[in-house]
Amino acid sequence: MTPVPPSPVPDPAARAALSDALGRRLRGPGTLGSLDVLRTTADALLGAVPADVWCAVMLDPATLLDTGGLHEHGFPQEVMPRLFDIEHADQEGVDNIRALARRRGTASLLSTSLRGRIADSVYYRDVLRPVGLADELRVVLRDGARTWGLFVLCRGPDAPPFTAAETALASAVSGPATAALRRSLLLTGIDRNDVPDAAGLLVVDDTLRVRLATATAERRLALIQEAHPPPGRSLPYALTALVHTARSAPPGSQVRSRAIGVTGHWVTLSAWREAAAGTVPGPLGDTGGEELTYVSLAPSHPRELTAIVLDAYGLTPREREVAQQVLLGRSTAEMSAKLHIAGYTVQDHLRKVFDKAGVRSRRDFTGELFQRCYLPRLDDPPLTTDGRMRDDDPGG
Fold first, then answer.
1. Could you read off the pLDDT of 317-362 as tens digits, one per residue?
2. What range(s) does the HTH luxR-type domain occupy (predicted)?
3. Is residue 103 part of a domain?
4. What angle (nearest 5°) sits at the alpha carbon of residue 346, between those of residues 345 and 347?
5. What whole-number distance in Å separates Cα of residue 135 and Cα of residue 68?
6. How many CB atoms lie within 10 A of CB 229?
């Protein structure tokens, strides 16, 4: 693909108009679920920047592993194993999600990042070119240091190339989409069923064939918020990314990610590699048999949920420190001494924390976090395992 001269970036008013229009749609009546946020954003983004192939992915901000998304119009299945190897195992490429998460901007065009030498990219050679795609535009959903999602847009060689103007325009959706996605992680889902606290176990071979799946694991997999075409698929992409990462991890280590299900339950997925049962160690440390990937799917621990909630509120690093001091029961004077800031500065940070959390006092803030993260561990039937109020009325 021959690079084209950069076109002028759009009028700032055009970017503002796209951002404002999307923000209004995302703040409409009712609470949007995570997939609804992605669909609404995709509708606005693709209306401004059309694409031949596209997908939207939710990410665990701690690990940048997939936790669900929209894949109905995404890449063909035959290139996905190689894509996951490059993206999560090898972490190669100038526009790898981990590289993008460290950049200041929120939109990046592969051909531009490579200064027109796109054929030098292993991602282009092994993923885009085999399925007839010429270039890829990525939009990161990021708030500060936390990355919550990613949009990927591709065009074929017969379509007009992406322009600098379109890249700049695409970046306009990042702010409102990120805010809405964070909000959805806090507000959506009222569980209507009892979900056991026990972990589910999944065993997968290197062809991604499931060798064993407990009933609990199957129930948890069915709740992952991911839309994709069913033919030829056995695992959600959220799990596939985790398995590929585990295959490249050092021996004896685990890789983890966290996903929110359609009911609002948070699940921690942990993957590790072991030799299949019955194999005999061989010379030089060989297992003498097949290695498999084992995946545990369990309710997220309260300390993990607290971290997720504080991230989802969009707190700055200093506001997060103040929030943690509140949860520890510290007074303003104690916070001032601990954080080496003035008392009036502590109060200013507290006001901002309370505004973002939608509460009015330290008691309200502590109660909100306690109900969301810790009450589930108490034996109180009206609550689900992640702290949401259970609705046992099927018509309610």
1. 889 888 888 877 788 898 999 999 999 999 999 999 888 888 888 8
2. 312-369
3. yes
4. 90
5. 24
6. 12
